[in-house]
Structure formats: C-alpha cells, structure tokens
Amino acid sequence: MSSVEEFRAEIRAWLADHLGGEFAELRGRGGPGREHEAFEGRLAWERHMAAHGWTCVGWPVEHGGRGASLEEQIAFHEEYALADAPARVNHIGEQLLGPTLIAFGTEEQKKRFLPPIVAVEELWCQGYSEPDAGSDLANVRTRGALSPDGSQWVVDGQKIWTSLAHEAQWCFVVARTESGSRRHAGLSYLLVPLDRPGVEVRPIVQLTGTSEFNEVFFDGARTDASHVVGEPGDGWRIAMATLGFERGVSTLGQQVGFRREWDGLAALARRNGAIADPLIRDRLVQAWIDLEAMAASARRGVDPSVGKLHWAAWHRGLGELAMDVCGAASTLAAGEPYELDEWQRLFLFSRADTIYAGSDEIQKNIVAERLLGLPKEARV
Length: 380
What we know:
Layout: H1 3-18, H2 39-51, H3 70-82, H4 91-104, H5 107-118, E1 124-127, E2 143-146, E3 152-163, E4 170-176, E5 187-193, E6 199-203, E7 213-224, E8 228-229, H6 235-246, H7 251-272, H8 278-300, H9 304-326, H10 342-349, H11 360-371
Parallel strand pairs: 1-4
Antiparallel strand pairs: 2-3, 3-7, 4-5, 5-8, 6-7
Helix pairs in contact: 1-3, 3-7, 4-5, 4-6, 7-8, 7-9, 8-9, 9-10, 9-11
C-alpha cells in the first residue's frame, strides 16, 4: 500500500470512528447558504479534529500540521466530503491566512497566530471587498495609518461581503497605507482584531434568508504596528498570494460535494419523472461530463482563475437545472415563514458563485492578460 493509500485509509477510519455519538447529527450540516446550521456543534467538532491532529494537514510539521503531500491533501479533502462530515468553520484561517503567514509572516507572527488556527481557538475572516471595490481589489479606500508614536495601525473604512465576520475574532484587511498612492501601490496587509473599539459588524440578509456574510465598519480601529504581513506598501503581492491559496487544493473536496449534489438531482429526476424529458436528460449528462472534466483539470493543476471560472459556472448551472427538475414545486417554500428545501437553496445561493472569490469578469481579464498575454483592457 502506498503512503497516499495509507493516509487515505487512516483518515477514512478516523472519520468513521469519530463522526458518531455527540457528532452524529452534524453529518451534512453547514455549507454554502447553510453556514448558520449547528455552528457551535461544528466548532466543537473541528476542535475535536484539532485535538487528534486533523486540522491544517498540509501545513509543515514545525507549524503544527502533518506536512501532508499534495496527493495526501487531496485524499483528505475527498474522504472528508465522502464521509458527509460537517462544513468546516475554520477554512479561512486554515486555508487562506495560515499559508500566507507561513510564506510571508515574521517568526513572531507565526508564533502568535498559527497555533490558535491549528487549535481552532481563533477564527478569521477576509477583509478585501468594499462597496466601491468588489473584485477590483486595487480600488480599496479603507485606510491605515500609524499612530503618532508608531506603535499601532489606525484603520478607517468599510468592508463588505465579509464571510463569517460575525463569528470571527480577527480579520486580515487590505488597506491603503501610503497617502496619495493609487491602484496596486501603497496597500498593506493588516491583521486586525474585531473585538476592539472602533469595529462594527452588521450581518447582511441573503436571498436564502440567512446571513453568512457581513458589512464591517472600521472607525479608528487599532492593531499593533507589528501586525502587518510583509512590508508596508507590499500588500498587493501578499493579497494575491492569499487568493491563490483560496482557490487551491481544498476545491477538490468541494467537487466531491458537487458530485453528491448531481447524484441527488439525478435521483430526484428519476423519482418525479423529469428524466423522461430528453432535454433534462441531456442537461444532466452534460453536467456529469463537465464535472468529470473539472475534476481532471484540478488534478492536473489548472490555473486557479481557470478553475474558478469552471466550477462557478457549473454550480450555478446545476442550481438552474435543479429548478427545472423540480418543476412548479420549485416556486413554493417548504415551510413558513421562508423555509427552503435543498434545491431552492442551491439555486439561490449559487447565483453568487460567479461573483464571490473574484467575479467572472475579473477572472477572464486575469486569464486573458496574464495567462494568454493579450493586450490589457483599456482603463480610464
């Protein structure tokens, strides 16, 4: 048995043994549009995973991880999804900030922030988008300035679509710290606590009736001067590295979830007779083909922007197909006052897939200009 097969067998056995008892009811809970489900229970589950060494598996051993290879990380995410384990609550810290700090942080930052991420003691959110700077991150207006004594950063501005900010203790914030700078220059990557004066978090009600993301207002919010990742003014490079981690190996586990959704939708089409419609059959088959192609591309190491374009369009299309499979029943709420079934929730939440984590328009520009070398888009 290869080391990857041994690793896969180990995590599969551990999940089978531990996803029971007090954690049995957490199977399948959480996920896109359902982040509010059993949050405290999922937090306890993830801390249980940490106690047994199953968080941050891809991190180097010296930083609390298992030093898992790429193939082993793929196996972990696939087995986790196949076990119908609950959606993770520490994804942003583990998959985004942690790797960023390992690559660019100071030794003091690593000692301060990495252990609480491994132990799931501090949760993080991502302070990128703003009302006038969504996918156009270089247009941020949130500002940071050193206090007169140079001991703290003082942050003023607003972030929006900040996932899980209402549950997080910390936020990594892209802020303009050089007066008069424009676009990519003069930005810094600051680590800002959310439980201090000068920070207000306001949940945003979504189409699904839930509030997974938020507005965050900074009004003289303060953080230590040492809480800047990389050099001041070098925030663009750090922020882009974080986005690369965001679209990394964990998306393979996401695709296992996609396959489960496809399987469920195909089964529904057989039960309610929608499968008799040749157009429905054709769309189901095409969705299966595209999913297989997506998985093959991810294993080959497709560029993150190309991968994001592929899975976002696919998942949104699956939500649209689900409404056609459900037929007229899709227009009725499952219960009062606004209870949705899984297919209605899939359709409504997946409308955001082509917007968050970098909109399709921005991703296409990246592919055109940076991968294909085409002329840059004309800008005013």
